[in-house]
Amino acid sequence: MPIKDGTREADLYRKLGEGRVQCQSCAHYCVLKPGERGRCGVKQNTDEKLYTLVYGKACAANIDPIEKKPFFHFFTGY
Ligand code: SF4
Question: What is the average pLDDT across 16-40?
Fold first, then answer.
């Protein structure tokens, strides 16, 4: 459940005690103290819970001409 736009509790982590958590989303397995962010910069330990800060946000956007799409019976420029 998102708590604000782009922020959601992560699914893959474990609590280590003393306020620390370990992210298990990738091979870095960052161990984060309260308030710290992971190596990727998008996971943060807040109140002994790991949050992802970019949930639901696009990681890439691109503008392509419609002519590249595999549409059938689609006539541009007419
Ligand atoms: S905090 Fe980021 S870099 Fe660290 S293990 Fe999690 S996903 Fe990987």
Answer: 97
